[in-house]
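FORM 12-B: Structure-to-Sequence Request
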């Protein structure tokens, strides 16, 4: 039993003895002089075949039999083979369904792209489509959004209107396209600006913005004499444009007040009570007179008024200066007055009318052209009229002596009979006929006047009702 115990105690010694060999050590001749770099570092004295170990900061001589075979650094072994692929983990459980988000905010009806509340548009055109019920608010939102940077607005298709929209008089606006239909019989205006506080307010705020309306149609509700809606009434402005617009069944199609240098081109009033009216601010807002709020230097090109039995005035120009009308058609069933011109204000000028065509089923109630004026010259160039009843009536104002000059009335351009005169004169009115052919002048001259006895005289004399032929056949 004692021998077995002794054998077991000697097993570690035998094992150690079998593995005592130095694998890695430093060398020197004699005891090393430099300090060791690591604890238990081995140094071999090759001159004396002696070994030293660095312990406790000094070199200690040791027997070779006591060397630790693992004290040095062994050689690097070969890279082992890759391990086998691990077992794939099982599929995790599916997560629960997330909570559904709340519904998004509804877009603005009829406006593409949508109009943001803070009006932050920066570029592009605003398109307005119908919502099928009432598109007034869609158009108003588009106008408000456009005010920030003058973005054009295009209306698409047929839109319904239950009330009017308001335009900021200080902002530029450009609206085009579409057909707008009134859906009630209330009194309102399709496009309007607020009423100015006074004439100074109109001049300061309203005349600095440009407004353009083009390529559109507007229709009022009532198709009879009881019409209540107005197409356009922007109160005051400068350089505004109305181009290629048609208005139907309106109390007034376009109402221009204090409209400086405004152009109306290729527009048409159909079955309206009044078509196009150009006037001053007198009577419309405080302090406005026929002198400080005139619609001066307006231009009307190719305007047509197609009247119904209830039509009053096709075109009216009142107390304005240098209004040019080139191309005026007065047609349809009836007009009380085709073109009503008044120049009684101190700053107004006479009529300048070129290419007027009158052809209605019924004669005019008053006249195809009525002129109310003081001492001014009114020019009618190239008229073409078919039985207008009274072609031109002149009403002198405050004892004035207005003059009317016809130019370039070629043969068979004015048709009338030998019984009913077509020019209604008054005391002091002078009539001149320049480059006019038969039968408008010469032997029929005495038959075309009514209202006062006329004198054949080319000499101007106040109070003399006269007619004068210039460069025309006698």
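FORM 12-B RESPONSE
SEQUENCE OUT:
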């Amino acid at each position: 039993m004692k021998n077995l115990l002794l054998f077991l105690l000697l097993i570690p010694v035998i094992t150690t003895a079998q593995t005592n060999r130095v694998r890695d050590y430093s060398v020197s001749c004699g005891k090393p002089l430099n300090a060791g770099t690591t604890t238990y570092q081995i140094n071999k004295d090759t001159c004396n075949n002696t070994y030293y170990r660095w312990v406790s900061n000094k070199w200690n001589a040791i027997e070779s039999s006591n060397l630790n075979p693992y004290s040095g650094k062994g050689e690097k072994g070969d890279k082992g083979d890759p391990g086998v692929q691990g077992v794939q983990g099982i599929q995790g459980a599916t997560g629960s369904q997330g909570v559904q988000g709340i519904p998004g905010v509804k877009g603005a009806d009829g406006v593409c792209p949508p109009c943001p509340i803070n009006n932050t548009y920066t570029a592009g055109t605003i398109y307005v489509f119908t919502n099928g019920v009432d598109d007034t608010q869609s158009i108003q939102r588009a106008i408000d959004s456009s005010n920030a940077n003058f973005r054009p607005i295009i209306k698409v298709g047929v839109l319904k209107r239950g009330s009017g929209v308001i335009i900021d008089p200080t902002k530029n606006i450009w609206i085009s396209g579409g057909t707008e239909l009134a859906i009630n019989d209330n009194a309102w205006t399709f496009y309007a600006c607020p009423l100015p506080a006074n004439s100074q307010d109109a001049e300061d705020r309203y005349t600095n913005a440009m407004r353009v309306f083009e390529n559109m149609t507007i229709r009022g509700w009532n198709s009879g004499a009881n019409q209540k809606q107005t197409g356009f009434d922007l109160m005051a402005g400068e350089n505004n444009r109305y181009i290629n617009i048609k208005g139907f069944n309106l109390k007034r199609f376009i109402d221009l007040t204090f409209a400086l240098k405004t152009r109306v081109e290729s527009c048409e009033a159909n079955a309206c009570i009044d078509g196009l009216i150009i006037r001053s601010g007198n009577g419309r807002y405080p302090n406005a007179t026929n002198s400080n709020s005139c619609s001066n230097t307006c231009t009307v090109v190719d305007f047509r008024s197609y009247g119904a039995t209830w039509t009053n005035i096709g075109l009216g120009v009142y107390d304005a200066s240098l209004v040019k009308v080139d191309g005026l058609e007065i047609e349809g069933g009836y007009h009380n007055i085709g073109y009503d011109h008044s120049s009684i204000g101190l700053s107004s000028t006479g009529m300048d009318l070129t290419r007027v065509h009158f052809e209605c089923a019924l004669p005019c109630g008053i006249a195809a052209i009525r002129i109310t004026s003081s001492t001014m010259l009114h020019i009618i160039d190239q008229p073409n009229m078919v039985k207008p009843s009274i072609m031109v009536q002149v009403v002198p104002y405050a004892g004035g002596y207005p003059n009317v000059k016809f130019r370039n009335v070629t043969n068979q351009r004015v048709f009338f009979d030998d019984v009913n005169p077509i020019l209604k004169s008054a005391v002091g009115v002078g009539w001149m006929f320049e480059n006019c052919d038969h039968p408008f002048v010469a032997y029929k001259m005495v038959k075309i006047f009514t209202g006062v006895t006329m004198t054949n005289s080319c000499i101007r004399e106040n109070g003399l009702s006269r007619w004068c032929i210039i460069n025309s056949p006698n």
